[in-house]
């Protein structure tokens, strides 16, 4: 996610806002993933720690979706469920499959 996208998201969402952010080193490489991570950390958005409850919820989701949804996506979805997020901003098609959350693409967001 580029810094301009992070600014856009931050500008349309009211504080305090929780955005669950997932970035794959495998897809983007360590340097790019690290840059994106630092942008999120420095953005003022809330970073939610992985808790026992989130881990448990992620396991339930992983089992429900017959392991078709990767663990990382189950953790993102479980974090959203446990924190009662209105929606998750993502470009990941796996998150779109999870019925327990509402997933929106960045192109669906409006100022």
What does it look like?
The protein has 6 helices and 2 strands, in the order H-H-H-H-H-E-H-E. The longest helix has 13 residues, at 52-64. It has a single domain (3-108), classed as Rossmann fold (3-Layer(aba) Sandwich), CATH 3.40.50. 23% of the residues are buried. It starts with a helix and ends in a 7-residue tail after the last strand. The protein has 111 residues and is mainly alpha-helical. Helices cover 50% and strands 4% of the residues. Helix 6 (93-97) links the parallel strand 1 and strand 2.
Strand-helix topology:
Elements lengths: L2 H10 L12 H4 L1 H12 L10 H13 L6 H12 L5 E2 L3 H5 L5 E2 L7
Parallel strand pairs: 1-2
Looking at the structure, the CATH topology is Rossmann fold
Q: Numbering strands along the chain, what is their spatial order in the largest sheet?
A: 1-2
CATH uppermost class: Alpha Beta
For the secondary structure, the number of strands is 2
Which band does the percent of strand residues land in? under 5%
What's the name of the CATH homologous superfamily? 5'-nuclease
Global outline: globular
Q: Nutshell version of this structure?
A:
Helix content is 50%, strand content 4%. It has 111 residues and is mainly alpha-helical. The protein has a two-stranded parallel sheet with strand order 1-2.
